[in-house]
TrEMBL record:
GO terms for biological process: adenosine catabolic process; hypoxanthine salvage; inosine biosynthetic process; nucleotide metabolic process. It comes from Paraoerskovia marina. InterPro entries: A_deaminase_dom, Ado/ade_deaminase, Metal_Hydrolase. One of its GO terms (cellular component) is cytosol. SUPFAM superfamilies: Metallo-dependent hydrolases. This is adenosine deaminase. The keyword Membrane does not apply. Pfam families: A_deaminase.
Length: 365
């Protein structure tokens, strides 16, 4: 199978993405047009040159440096019209890539510079999402999309943002997250936030185990009561491998995460860029999957990583020898881990994901 044929076959698969940042998935041309509207200077001219700048700048091996690229995307997402457009285009782009369910995460507190209130930002994004779903439907592509409202780790607004998320649970918000620089900003900064979310029976995912180690993951699952972990690849620091016997001994935290099937939202290309993995071929996702951790595949930031779900799947097939069964496994794990009710997850699996994979039953990737 040629690379083109392989990518075409993978593009036809149904996909579920749980970890996709709204401010990390803009179209380069959209960044240019929105920047012109608000007078924001960009580091490159033209869509192709700008796309290259984002990818090259993100490819630093450092999470803090990676996060600097967001200064430009956030700067152009400060009006209701801009938020609506970015959300609409994100949904359309994901649907075009074969995504049937997505959760878009973003931090409302970063979009207040031109006078919007927190609630107005949520409303604008929701309108954009609904518009995107309608546009996708017109082209014959069905997609379901929820918002993941995020608080920034270095700021002091965690409980306020958590309350915003809960207040909008009937307005498209499906869960809560904290993001940003992981090291030095653990969940224990604001333990009352997690107590509030638990009391409200509200779903939580937490970035952990990317730029910090097992202690970060431990706080996420025990204090934060997260049922999903953003990235989480450094949980392998709590696993001892004997290469001579091909056996692994899991430590207490690794056992806890695996025993409770806490989903790891793994983003291979992004992890290589930030230094959480050395390469796709040597990415921890392979060992995590072999050890029966609950692994879901995601994109993280499609602009910064110049990626898509089709691209992430293709890389794993080409560089790690993944098969159609492996792709089905991570897709089903993601679907069953979505922050929607059980009957909705069941419908997503039975009516959308499984039939989509069965259409190419016997395919040789």
């Amino acid at each position: 199978m040629t690379p083109t044929e392989l990518e075409a076959q993978i593009a036809a698969l149904p996909k579920v993405v749980l970890h996709d940042h709204l401010d990390g998935g803009l179209r380069p041309q959209t960044v240019i047009e929105l920047a012109a509207d608000v007078g924001h200077d960009l580091p490159a001219d033209g869509a192709e040159a700008l796309a290259t700048w984002f990818a090259d700048s993100a490819d630093s091996g450092s999470l803090p440096r990676y996060l600097e690229t967001f200064d430009h995307t956030i700067a152009v997402m400060q009006t209701a019209d801009a938020l609506r457009r970015v959300a609409r285009e994100a949904v359309v782009d994901l649907a075009t890539d074969g995504v049937v369910y997505a959760e878009l995460r973003w931090a409302p507190e970063q979009h207040l510079q031109r006078g919007l209130s927190l609630q107005e930002t949520v409303d604008a994004v929701q309108v954009g999402i609904e518009e995107g779903v309608s546009v996708a439907a017109e082209t014959g592509r069905g997609i379901q999309v929820g918002q993941l409202v995020t608080a920034m780790r270095h700021a002091d607004r965690w409980t306020e943002i958590a309350e915003l998320a809960v207040a909008n649970r009937e307005n498209g918000v499906v869960g809560f997250d904290i993001a940003g620089a992981e090291l030095g900003f653990p969940p224990s900064r604001f333990p009352e936030t997690w107590r509030y979310l638990a009391d409200q029976n509200f779903p939580v995912t937490i970035h952990a185990g990317e730029a910090d180690g097992v202690d970060s993951v431990a706080e996420a699952v025990h204090l934060g009561q997260a049922t999903r972990i953003g990235h989480g690849v450094r949980i392998l620091e709590d696993v001892v491998f004997d290469e001579s016997t091909r056996t692994a001994t899991l430590g207490p935290l690794a056992n806890w995460v695996r025993d409770h099937q806490i989903t790891l939202e793994v983003c291979p290309s992004s992890n290589v860029q930030t230094g959480a993995a050395t390469s796709i071929a040597e990415h921890p996702i392979n060992r995590l999957k072999e050890l029966d951790f609950a692994v879901a595949l995601s994109t993280d930031n499609r602009l910064m990583s110049r990626t898509s779900m089709t691209q992430e799947m293709t890389l794993l097939v080409q560089e790690c020898g993944w098969t159609i069964d492996d792709l089905a496994d991570v897709t089903l794990t993601a679907a069953w881990s979505a922050f929607i009710h059980h009957d909705e997850r069941r419908a997503l699996v039975d009516d959308v994901v499984l039939p989509g994979f069965q259409k190419i039953e016997g395919a040789q990737l």
